[in-house]
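Protein data sheet
==================
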Amino acid sequence: MIEVLNLHKIFHDRKKGEIPAVRGVSFTCSPGRVFGLLSFLFDQPRELEGREIEFCSLAVLQCASAVARALSLAEPPAER
C-alpha cells in the first residue's frame, strides 16, 4: 500500500512565480489499484459552480476511462 500524507506541490513559473498545485492532500492506494490526482489551475482561489463542476467531473471521468483502457491492453510487442 502507498500512503501519502499532507502532500504539497508547487510549480515554478518564470513569469508567474510559484504556483501551488496541491495543498495538504492525503490519500492511500492499495496494491493493484490506480490512484489519479487531477489539478485545475486558476489565477486565484475560487469556488467552482454548476457547469464548472460538471466540466471537471467529465474531465476526471475521461482520465479514468483512459487509464482503465490502457491497463486493459495487452503488453506491447517487444521491439525488434
Remarks:
- The first helix runs from residue 50 to 72.
- The CA atoms of residues 2 and 29 lie 5 Å apart.
- The chain is about 30% helix and 30% strand.
- The chain has a mean pLDDT of 86.
